[in-house]
Every structure is written in structure tokens, then in C-alpha cells.
Amino acid sequence: MQGCNFQLSSSRSPWLEPRMSSIGFQAATHRGYFLGGSGLCRLKCRVQCSQLWQSTSLVNNQKEKDRYSCIDQSTSYLHVQSLRNFPTGKLCGEVVMVRLDSALLLGHLGPCTFSLERALLTIKYLYKARAKVIIVTSWDTTLQSNNPEVKSIDSFAEYLSSLLQVEVIPVDGRPGLTSFKKEEWVQNSIILFENLLNFRGEVANCNDFSQKLASGATIFVNDSFSLSHKILASTVGITRFCYASLAGFHFDEELTRLIKITDTTRRPYIAIVGGGNFLRKAPALRMLISLCDGLFFVGKLSFQIMKGLGMPVPSQFIERNAIMEALQIIQVARDRNVPIYYPTDLWCLNNDNCGTSRVVNSAGQLDGWTPADIGPSTLEKISSIIPLYKKILWIGSTKYDLAEEFSVGATQLGQILEKASFDSCEVILVGNAACNTLRRKTGSSSQCIEFKNATVVWEFLKGRILPGIAALDKRYPYRIPWSTVFCDSTLPLVVDIGSGNGLFLFEMAKRYECSNFLGLEMNEKLVIRCLQGMALYEKRNLYFVSTNATSTFHSIVSSYPGRLSLVTIQCPNPDFNKEQNRWRMVRRMLVEAVADLLQTNGQVYLQSDVESVLLGMKEQFLSYSNGQLVVDGDDCGHRMENPFGVASDWERHVLARGAPMYRTMLRKV
């Protein structure tokens, strides 16, 4: 087939059998939501209502489809590409850099914990896949007295070797393969770089340091979930220089557990919240009060709530700048009819005689006494209400000061929750206070979900984006029900990456009804507008999805039951100020996904109004497709005619001003 004389009746392109249609499209009106397992995936597809003549069944069908077209942008970053779902065959021979959490290794130097086992499994999995593994991590040098394994990089490498049963070679000096002698890299060995805390560029997320750290590595695997709230060169900056950034087995499991905190599938759901600093935690408390069916405040936070409820509380226990925040949370609880609990009694220390302690009624006179921990009556209250709930979150300490001898309340609360977990109740423990007291009392592993690092969870509950998660490649969170989206999901599929306002696909779908058309577009507003236009489009062979196709193409298209016959990329990112950024979407991950999923003799159509942009896209497709893609015929020096007879909106604009378009067609062999 000649690229510049594209034949619409070609047997190579069974989807090109034109049939003109006079169907027009008008703005549709609907409001679509999709409530996924996380409870937070409420879609932003908000469209004002207007009177339309179309049938009610058509509108209802459109609503059903739109549930999968857009995702909540505030939580979409949580759906990341994982090592578990990455093709094993693509790991062989690749240099893979693993960011390991040293706390998993140094916090438990006895029998392996489940978290440590998962972290080690990540490295063993890569090693077995014949990848060249580099480990980067950091550890506090103050731990050397308690952990001789970290007194030097050599001893740490030796310790890792004993855990992995594989030789680990330490590399002193500045991390990066540029300073490493390749002949030292034995085929059956793993490389360990120097402690990252020894370099300022790590904490500063220095671009130069990130580039040197990643030098030689093509794939990055993050298995240090406890650092997700930090912006580091080894968790964020490095992803800019690797073609794939994935979550390791431990990271993936911890992220799944984190999302469970906001999952309201199991109800009733109660949160036991402790600690102090009400003002800083207010956004997280607002999140919890909107999710849970009950809140039990302990620790210093309880005084703020008690004050808001009108109870007498000594002024020294009150955060004056957080009074309004407490009142707002109480009001939301009343509006939702959510009960708020607080301690009925407290263990207190006498201010004059620190050795004297007694139980004091929390509503009584606290002058002269310093609260230390929750009392027996409070524990009885907790024990009585816990059976009413099917899901429990405990986050924050129950104690009011740091006196270790007053940890009885926390330990007994751990016992109560331990029993609840064995009674089919889902229990989530957050922070050292919760996790350690439970483990110290039970002396064995429990069925509870545990998060040692409370900061990650607090930041998540505040609605803030966690940089370490956001930096990883994304996957599409839903499995699209193709039989609902399209009338016949076995027809050949045409995918337009960066579909924009959708005019190109609307016209293509009307002309070529023997194919299905899918538009992938990052701009959700444009996708919503396209979905509006589809409401009156009776032929169900067109659909749009709001996503970043660069990293989600494979997860979306791989589930399509029919064949992928054509992929188009037209004038990506028209930015006149930064011309080199126009083809940034064409990365190795996208090229490999397209080449793998495209049917034999399937085609890739590339065009741009800037020849250098087209050449860049063409070069990447030919380079990263592993010989699966070739130029289809003669593209006439990139000046071939449009083979479809349908121009995109930007193409029309360029041609209208008399400027040329540059095009090429590739084919899978």
C-alpha cells in the first residue's frame, strides 16, 4: 500500500468501508457518577440539564457508559503501574534501579516480617527475570550503635547478601553507573549504591543529582512506601530519566491498604483518633467525619472536641486557634447524624507529686492534674461500642504525654481491637503507638492492617497528593465494559491519542461504521464535551476516555475483545513557545504498548505541522518497536495526502493558512 495514495477499500484496512451519515450532534444533559471500591471515585462529569428530544433510554444508556470515561482527578494519581503487571519479558537485560526502604531491613533483624518479605521479593523477582538490579536506599547513621549492619556500606551489602542469598556488591562514592567500572558487575550480582543521606542532592531533589543517580538505568521500581510524602531525588526526580517507573511488591501492597482507609464498603465504620495538634490535622478530620459513621477522640484532640461541645476544659489544654475548626467538625457530625465520642475518665499525674496518679473524671476538675492516658471507664465504653462496627481505624496515640509507664490504656485498646479483628471486623492501625502496643501485648502477628508511618496516612487523609506515588507511571483504574460502550465490541478498534475536541473521531465514526473509535484525551473538560455530543449519536461505535494515554494505553486497550487496527497521533501538544515538547507524549512505554497490541498489518498514523516533531515521533516508533513497525510504502517525503478524507480541527487550521502538514504511516509486520 502506498502511504500517499491510501486506498479506502484496501483489504489491509477492513475498518475502512465508508458510509456517510447525516446524523448531527447536540449538547447532551446528564450527570454521571462512578463509586468505586475506594469510595472517593466520584466522577466530575457534571453537565447542566436541558430539554432534548431524544429518548429516555438513550440518555440512560449514555449515563451508564460515562461512569468509566472520567475519573476523579484528586485520586487518579493513586492508580499506578506496578511491577506485578509489567511484562516479565521486558525486564530481561534491563538495568533496573530499586528504591529500597531500609527501615524494613533495620527495624526487624530477626525472622522476616511480611513487609520485609515483600520488599525482598521485589529484588528476587527482578533478579530471576535476569534484570541487572541496582539498589539505592538511605539509613540514619545514628542507628549504627544498635544495628552494626549499617556501620559501613560494606557491612550493609553483606547483610543484604545474607537476606537475598545473592552477592551484593557495594559501590562507594557518588551514586551512578558513570562512576562504576562495568567489569566489576559480575553477571550474577546486585549493585548497592552509597547511603543517599550522604548527598545533599537527595533531599533537595536536585535535577543533576537525579540524572546522575539514574544514569544507565532504564526502569525504576519504588519499594519505599514510607517515603511517599517526601520529595526526594531517589523517589521523584529519578522518574524523569527512566522510561518506566513502577511500584514494587511492598509499595503496591501498602498503597492498596492505604486506599482501603477511604473505602466505605464495610459499614458501619468508626475512627479512633488520637494525638495532638488539632489545627494541623483538621483537614484529615474533616475527611474522616465525611467518611465514617462514628468518631472516638482520644489524646489531646479530645479536649478540643470536649470544649466545642461546651464541657469545661482547662485553658492550657486548648488550642485557641483551632476552636472554629472543632466547631465545624461537630456541626458536620450533627448534620450527618454521626456520633462523636470522647473519654469519660483519664489517668492523671499530680502536678505537685509526679509519683502520684489516679483516675479523674474527664468532665470533673482537672486543675492540678496532668492527663496521661485514657481511663478504665473509657476503655469499657470503647469495648461496648466496637461490636457495633464492621470497620475500625485507629490513628494517633491515646496518651496525653510521653510517660512510658502510662501505656496501659493503649495496650488494652490494642487487645480490644485484636479481638475485634478475629470477629470478622476490619481493623486498621496507623502509627507506632497503635502498631507497637498491639504487637507488644499479643507477641504475635495479627489480622490487622498496620501502617508504621502515620505521616503518610495523615497527608493522604488531608487530601494532599503524595509525591512518591504521583511520580510513578499511571494505569487506568477501571475495566471498561466494552459491550456496554459499543454496540459490537468485536469490530476493529481505532484509537486516536490526544483526541482533543473529538471532531476528527465524530466524522470518522460516521463515515466508517464498520469500526469502533476510541478517543484518549487528558483534558477532562474536552472529554465531557465530547460525551455530550454523543448523546444523540445513535450508532454506538464511538467513545471517549479522560486519561494520560502515555502510561495507560496498555491497561485500557488490552482488555478490548476485538482487534486494534489503527492508532493515530496528530499534532501532539501544539506549544509554539516550546516546540520540543510537542511530541513528549511519545515515549518508549507508549510505543511498546502500541506495537504489542496492534494487529498484524495494523497501522500507526502520525502527523504534525512541524516536520521535526513528526521526525521525532517516527524515530521513536521505529526505535522502540523492536522491529515490529516499518514505514508503510512511500510517505512522499512526509508530504503524503491525508488517507482518510477527514481532517482534524488543528489540521484544518493549518491548511487554512496555507501551511503544510507532515504525515507518515507505519505498519506492523
From TrEMBL:
Its EC number is 2.7.2.3. It catalyses: (2R)-3-phosphoglycerate + ATP = (2R)-3-phospho-glyceroyl phosphate + ADP; guanosine(46) in tRNA + S-adenosyl-L-methionine = N(7)-methylguanosine(46) in tRNA + S-adenosyl-L-homocysteine. Gene3D superfamilies: Phosphoglycerate kinase, N-terminal domain, Vaccinia Virus protein VP39. Its cofactor is Mg(2+). GO terms for molecular function: ATP binding; phosphoglycerate kinase activity; tRNA (guanine(46)-N7)-methyltransferase activity. Keywords: ATP-binding, Kinase, Magnesium, Methyltransferase, Nucleotide-binding, S-adenosyl-L-methionine, Transferase, tRNA processing. It is an enzyme of class 2 (transferase). PANTHER family: PHOSPHOGLYCERATE KINASE (PTHR11406:SF32). Monomer. Belongs to the phosphoglycerate kinase family. This is Phosphoglycerate kinase.
